[in-house]
Amino acid sequence: DTAVSQTPKYLVTQMGNDKSIKCEQNLGHDTMYWYKQDSKKFLKIMFSYNNKELIINETVPNRFSPKSPDKAHLNLHINSLELGDSAVYFCASSQDATAVAFFGQGTRLTVV
Amino acid sequence: GNSVTQMEGPVTLSEEAFLTINCTYTATGYPSLFWYVQYPGEGLQLLLKATKADDKGSNKGFEATYRKETTSFHLEKGSVQVSDSAVYFCALRRGGNKLTFGTGTQLKVEL
């Protein structure tokens, strides 16, 4: 019954690989997000989608490509992984732009 | 641009002590303000929010009052418990739909 669920929870991969993180929300929300939390716990938004359309794209390398196949899903694909990509990635959703955001449990990505 | 400044941690308290975690913000107009909590190994959970000046958000014994004159949203709890040990994030939302977070404050509560 998890509201916002991400898979996998942990991901360890080598530099140069391509990986995806999946996110699904069962709240019927229109807006979904990806946030990155670095090793110092600092959280910063990466992307925001509203009804499958990209709304926010912060200064994120092109290697990161979000994909929203439908309103309930927002997946994050990362090409050519680098050591600096190691972080915890959080998916979130909200009913609309002004509503409270609900977060998933996070995906801890470790690039070795 | 918008920004949130939180007191640096870690904050270490004994059980039943009074807690204050300072948060100040910079934003134009009237942002909505939030406190999120991240328990060890878990995602972020909304703790409380306030959407206009002088509003007080409260939940689980925690409170924060939206002070426009001092651009602050300090988090307080009268008596902390070991189970309150977590990282607390102050955040704002002003226009658009992205949250701007502070750097987080780690709270450790000891017996």
> What are the secondary-structure elements of chain A, in order, as H or E?
EEEEEEEEEEE
Oligomer: heterodimer
| Radius of gyration of chain A over all CA atoms, rounded | 13 Å
Q: Looking at the structure, what is the overall shape of chain B? A: globular
Mean residue pLDDT of chain A: 91
Low-pLDDT segments of chain A = none
Biggest β-sheet description of chain B: 6 strands, mixed
Give a count of the beta strands of chain B, DSSP E runs of length 2 or more. Answer: 12
**What would you call the shape of chain A?**
globular
List the helices and strands and how they pair.
The complex is a heterodimer of chains A (112) and B (111).
Chain A: E1 4-7, E2 10-13, E3 19-25, E4 31-37, E5 43-50, E6 53-57, E7 64-70, E8 73-78, E9 87-94, E10 102-103, E11 107-111
Parallel strand pairs in A: 2-11
Antiparallel strand pairs in A: 1-3, 3-8, 4-5, 4-9, 5-6, 7-8, 9-10, 9-11
Chain B: E1 3-6, E2 11-14, E3 19-21, E4 23-26, E5 32-38, E6 44-50, E7 56-59, E8 62-65, E9 75-77, E10 86-93, E11 100-101, E12 105-110
Structure report:
The complex is a heterodimer of chains A (112) and B (111). With 112 residues, chain A is an all-beta fold. Chain A has no helices and eleven strands. In chain A, the strands form two sheets. In chain A, strands 2, 4, 5, 6, 9, 10 and 11 form a seven-stranded mixed beta sheet that branches. In chain A, strands 1-3-8-7 form a four-stranded antiparallel beta sheet, with no helix packed on it. In chain A, strand 9 and strand 10 (102-103) form a beta hairpin. Chain A is globular. Chain A starts with a strand and ends with a strand. Chain B is mostly beta strands. Chain B contains no helices and twelve strands. In chain B, strands 2, 5, 6, 10, 11 and 12 form a six-stranded mixed beta sheet that branches. In chain B, strands 3-9-8-7 form a four-stranded antiparallel beta sheet, with no helix packed on it. In chain B, strand 7 and strand 8 (62-65) form a beta hairpin. The radius of gyration of chain B is 13 Å and the shape is globular. The termini of chain B are far apart.
